[in-house]
Specification:
Blueprint lengths: L2 H23 L30 H17 L4 H13 L3 H14 L4 H13 L3 H14 L4 H13 L3 H14 L5 H10 L5 H15 L2 H14 L3 H14 L4 H13 L3 H14 L4 H13 L3 H14 L5 H13 L2 H29 L11
Helix pairs in contact: 1-5, 2-3, 3-4, 3-5, 4-5, 5-6, 5-7, 6-7, 7-8, 7-9, 8-9, 9-10, 11-12, 12-13, 13-14, 14-15, 15-16, 16-17, 17-18
């Protein structure tokens, strides 16, 4: 091969790597592992967002145009990769996988297509397959800090924490300006009580990403799930200082204080979150549980009644009320709520059984859920 040919090949390889980096910027948030955000609640980053409804109309023509481009040039692996990314963003992972695999067959030496396939598998919870794709990417483009970071995410999902830590450290060493590995590493090290290093890594992440609130929020969630409520509360307060009116941070801090048995402060923050909540049922229930744990049973009953008014179909609230009335000594009210709960429970079980029977009968529409 001539020197010019070698130069062009090297330039093309660098271009492919760059394209991979640019491609992943748009899905970095989507690929954060579930274990980062172990406080499952509405409005937190734990949920992987779908394409907003208002964007569906604009996405569909793009998909049609991309599909037409693939049909015109079926051997263009870059067109197939772009189309696969668009399909994944539109919530069509099976079709996206098909396009990525086709792109790999056309360009088996391209790190970009393996990266995109790995991100797709990771977002689908297929950590082992994601790891295999990222390993192949690193074989083709060694030294990519971003690829090591994604390998770390996959290994973390598989609970291979030692190996994940190693990958995050490699990512930082190779690309010190890449922000996500600092927070990923901090969250894993928080399991080991390495408080000073965790704090330093979080500050490094903030310096690069600029998102102080999110950094402290997810770190608080990590400590909360491990029962370290003192640290969880401290970082939740720092998150709220960064963004004082963010619903998810208020809600989370209220729950952390409730777990820590600081009931008055829990009620304060839960009530502030209640004012901002779209669906208030969950927070009314949490207020009720908090009051019950504080031995304020009349307040607990009042909160549970509010939850029931907010969502009368949430039948388990009747069980919460039954337990509170029993502790208040009101046996008749407790019996009434228990009977109502059992009736609701039977209806749910019967509806589920009907739905399963109908699934075995082709052409029969499933029964409506209760």
């Amino acid at each position: 091969m001539t020197q010019t040919g070698s130069t062009q090949s090297a330039s093309r390889k660098r271009l492919l790597v760059l394209l991979g980096v640019l491609a992943v910027v748009g899905v970095t948030y989507l690929s954060l592992p579930r274990s980062w955000f172990e406080v499952p609640e509405e409005g937190t980053p734990a949920a992987r967002p779908a394409v907003p409804a208002q964007n569906v109309a604009s996405v569909a023509p793009d998909l049609a145009a991309m599909r037409a481009e693939v049909e015109r040039s079926p051997r263009d692996f870059e067109a197939r990769s772009r189309y696969g990314m668009a399909l994944a963003a539109a919530g069509r992972p099976a079709e996206a996988e098909k396009e990525f695999l086709a792109a790999i067959r056309l360009a088996p030496e391209s790190p970009v297509v393996y990266h995109n396939l790995g991100v797709l598998y990771h977002n689908q919870g297929q950590a082992a397959r994601a790891d295999a794709a990222f390993r192949r990417e690193l074989e083709l483009a060694p030294g990519s800090g971003l690829a090591h970071h994604y390998r770390g995410l996959a290994l973390q999902e598989m609970r291979q924490y030692r190996q994940a830590i190693q990958q995050f450290r490699l990512a930082i060493a190779l690309e010190p300006d890449l922000a996500p590995p600092y927070l990923s590493l901090a969250l894993l090290l928080s399991r080991e009580g390495a408080e000073e290093e965790v704090r330093r890594l979080v500050e490094e992440y903030i310096r690069r990403a600029g998102d102080r609130g999110l950094a402290y929020f997810v770190l608080s969630g990590a400590y909360s799930t491990r029962g370290d409520y003192a640290r969880a509360a401290r970082y939740a307060e720092l998150a709220l200082e960064a963004e004082p009116n963010k619903y998810a941070y208020l809600h989370h801090l209220g729950k952390v204080y409730s777990y820590a048995r600081v009931y008055d402060r829990a009620e304060e923050y839960l009530k502030r979150a209640l004012e901002m909540a779209k669906d208030k049922t969950t927070i009314w229930i949490e207020l009720g549980m908090n009051a019950q744990n504080a031995q304020r049973f009349p307040d607990a009953a009042a909160y549970f009644q509010q939850a029931l008014r907010a969502n009368p179909r949430k039948g388990e609230i009747h069980l919460y009320l039954a337990r509170v009335y029993q502790r208040m000594g009101d046996r008749e009210a407790a019996r009434r709520e228990e009977v109502t709960f059992r009736r609701w429970q039977r209806a749910v079980l019967e509806a589920d059984a009907r739905a399963k029977r109908q699934q075995r009968q082709p052409g029969v529409a499933p029964a409506p859920a209760h």
